[in-house]
């Protein structure tokens, strides 16, 4: 695993005014959150107090839109399609991520999968050097996709994803097996194939087997450390500026 190296030196006046934005896409339960946590941990950030963190994780799920009465009933019955792009509040997601990209402090909704709704409380996201934005459709919307300086796609076998989703949703999201399987066959799988999987082509790095792939995660961490090392700041700024015209991360062939 990568050593923490001099990443910890980025603070105060040395801090980059605009964060390095990394998009992390992949199917449901592919391990997106786990990969982000591992990256954060390897960059020596998991023990750091929230306000001081140089690496933060934002979830696209925070931007699920509010549902109307009829949609709420469907969601409670497990028939609402949460895997369709229209399930997200695109405008709020873009506005918030634009502010994050400008290095501003933002407040994002806390989403509750049991209530299928946002909670009244919000979470503050403070400026950081690296922001990981993870979700099933983070590469789907061009306005969002174009904001990322690096794009990762977590590629985990569908059977593994379904079995993990069953375990997770029964334990953590208040679902029963029938509902999970019905939702999976009617919405989750078809939407994955239509909207998520085609975005894999935008990835700079594809991570087969998700968080089990320690070699890939280690290489990504080393790459981030290299880009953010104080001696490389000028090059990094230039690369960020030109990130539309091509990526500096290795592309899959
Ligand atoms: N490599 C792994 N081995 C075993 N379980 C894993 C692994 N990666 C993730 N999980 C578990 O699978 C579930 C989904 O993982 P998560 O990272 O939340 O996926 P995603 O963010 O893509 O939905 C969680 O319960 C998590 O603990
Ligand atoms: N109320 C909701 C909202 C979303 N989902 C499912 O969550 C999945 C996305 O989150 P992952 O952590 O799995 O990437 C997506 O597939 C939705 O079906 C839900 O079950 N309930």
UniProtKB/TrEMBL annotation:
Functional pathway: Pyrimidine metabolism; UMP biosynthesis via salvage pathway; UMP from uridine: step 1/1; Pyrimidine metabolism; CTP biosynthesis via salvage pathway; CTP from cytidine: step 1/3
Keywords in alphabetical order: ATP-binding, Kinase, Nucleotide-binding, Transferase
EC number of this enzyme: 2.7.1.48
InterPro entries: P-loop_NTPase (IPR027417), PRK/URK (IPR006083), Uridine_kinase-like (IPR000764)
Transmembrane segments: none
Sequence ranges assigned to domain Phosphoribulokinase/uridine kinase in this UniProt record: 21-215
Stretches of the chain forming a coiled coil according to its record: none
Family: Belongs to the uridine kinase family.
Protein name: uridine/cytidine kinase
Species this protein is from: Dreissena polymorpha (Zebra mussel)
